[in-house]
Amino acid sequence: MKMFKRDLEEKITPVLFKGKLVVILGPRQSGKTTLAKKIINEYGEGGEYYDCQLADVRAHFVLGEPDKLLPLTKRKKIVVFDEAQTIQNIGSILKAYHDTYPEIQIIATGSSSFDLANKIKEPMTGRAYEFTLLPLSLNEVTSAYPDFCEADLFNVMQFGLYPAVIASETIEEKLFSIRNIATNYLYKDIFVFEAIRNPKIFEDLLKMLALQIGSTVSINKLSQGLGITRATVNRYLRLLEQSFIIKRIYSFSNNPRNEIKKGFKIFFLDIGVRNALVDIASPMSKRDDKGAIFENLFVGERMKKGSLEIFPPEIMFWRTRTGQEIDVIEKSGPNVSAFECKWKDVASVPKQFLKAYPNATFAPVNINNILSYV
């Protein structure tokens, strides 16, 4: 499989051997294992990789007995514990080990933020750097494929940006890869670690969300359409966010009288996963939803860009009670940036937005200039 240079590597390597554990979170198949192995390969025999899903590896993790890990870390400078979320009490175990043997750099990876992060954050407070690795960004793809063209962008909009999908050479291989990821990997942690009483309703919710990307979502309508309580809908949405499948973005407003303050939109962190739930086969040229797909792609790319920053900007949308709107608002401290996504047209900034936020920047984004903003 083709190797991709991940932008996150440049954020991780400077913090190694600074006296803290490194945690890499992200969805399954996003490239965490490949990145972690690449980092430790720089240390030759001083680096070692362990899959925590293997029984002989798991046997070394015992609460209150950090020396049990010594057979795995002896004579090593840096060690990777992959899929660490499968280990019970992982945070407390790593805390005790880190406090006893601080000279050994530990990298723990996990595909489930609601599980691994919660288990590590509390025990490892002040002892860990946390990073998130999402599917490939357009910047990473175009670095690997300098001849990237409009046809390639259309393929990305159809099949998404998971490494296995991008590395697939034929349409048939891309279809197989994204369907496999969407059906066999992404929900695994939710079904393993959380009690989902009715998986069919959970999957129906995902499909309903996939049909509403770029539109304001109503919890009441989701609840009524699925025949479940609002509390259950909210719980499922939280799990989908914490497992890196969707992201909720909320409305931006400093003027509640004229602007809509409540409400949120749903976007998928990978557009290929979204399409696999709705329609993965139709090419972009024949799709009625290509505008929403393009908007979702752009939002996902801005999220990936923000994930590389210590203080990422907050991503929102703007809409007035009279129907004026802007697809994407980024707020970083006092700075406000606005982006309007159009398939091929050039968008203009609404006059009401200019009047309300004269210091904000505005950029129209379409398929011809998207690479300039990601």
Automatic annotation (TrEMBL):
<protein>
    <submittedName>
        <fullName>ATPase</fullName>
    </submittedName>
</protein>
<feature type="domain" description="AAA+ ATPase">
    <location>
        <begin position="18"/>
        <end position="138"/>
    </location>
</feature>
<keyword id="KW-0238">DNA-binding</keyword>
<dbReference type="InterPro" id="IPR041682">
    <property type="entry name" value="AAA_14"/>
</dbReference>
<dbReference type="InterPro" id="IPR027417">
    <property type="entry name" value="P-loop_NTPase"/>
</dbReference>
<dbReference type="InterPro" id="IPR003593">
    <property type="entry name" value="AAA+_ATPase"/>
</dbReference>
<dbReference type="InterPro" id="IPR036390">
    <property type="entry name" value="WH_DNA-bd_sf"/>
</dbReference>
<dbReference type="Pfam" id="PF13173">
    <property type="entry name" value="AAA_14"/>
</dbReference>
<dbReference type="InterPro" id="IPR025420">
    <property type="entry name" value="DUF4143"/>
</dbReference>
<dbReference type="Pfam" id="PF13635">
    <property type="entry name" value="DUF4143"/>
</dbReference>
<dbReference type="GO" id="GO:0003677">
    <property type="term" value="F:DNA binding"/>
</dbReference>
